[in-house]
Design a protein that fits this description.
With 117 residues, the chain is mostly helical. It is built from seven helices and no strands.
Length: 117
C-alpha cells in the first residue's frame, strides 16, 4: 500500500454524495443489500482520518465487490455519476485501490503462505 492508494480511494469516495444525501445512500444500501451503510461509511472515514484506511477499504469491498448485485449497484451509482460506464469504471477503480490497501496489511505474505503449506 502506498499513500497514493489511500489518496486514490479517498478521492473516489469523495466523488460520491455525502452523508446528507439520504436518497442516494438508501438506493445504494438497497442495491448492495447492506444494512446501516451511512453509519458504516462514516465510521470508516473517521478511522481513515486517524490514519487507518483498512476499514474504508473493507467498506468498499463489502459494498461494491458483489457479483450477484453488480447490476443494481451499478445502476445506483449511475444515477449520481451520470452513466453506467462511469459507474462500472468507478467500481473497478475503487475495488482495485481497496484491494491494494488490504493486501498491504498482510504482515509477511511468505510467512502466511508457509503457514498454509
Amino acid at each position: 500500500m502506498t499513500d497514493d492508494d489511500e489518496q486514490q480511494l479517498a478521492a473516489l469516495l469523495n466523488g460520491l454524495p455525502g452523508h446528507d444525501d439520504a436518497r442516494f445512500w438508501r438506493g445504494l444500501k438497497e442495491a448492495a443489500g447492506i444494512y446501516r451503510i451511512r453509519s458504516t461509511m462514516s465510521s470508516a472515514v473517521q478511522e481513515a482520518q486517524d490514519g487507518d484506511y483498512e476499514p474504508l477499504a473493507e467498506f468498499v469491498l463489502d459494498v461494491f465487490n458483489r457479483d450477484a448485485r453488480l447490476k443494481d449497484i451499478t445502476a445506483a451509482l449511475a444515477t449520481h455519476l451520470g452513466s453506467t460506464l462511469r459507474a462500472r469504471a468507478w467500481i473497478t477503480d475503487a475495488i482495485a485501490a481497496a484491494d491494494r490497501i488490504n493486501r498491504a496489511h498482510v504482515e509477511d505474505p511468505l510467512d502466511e503462505l508457509a503457514a498454509k503449506w
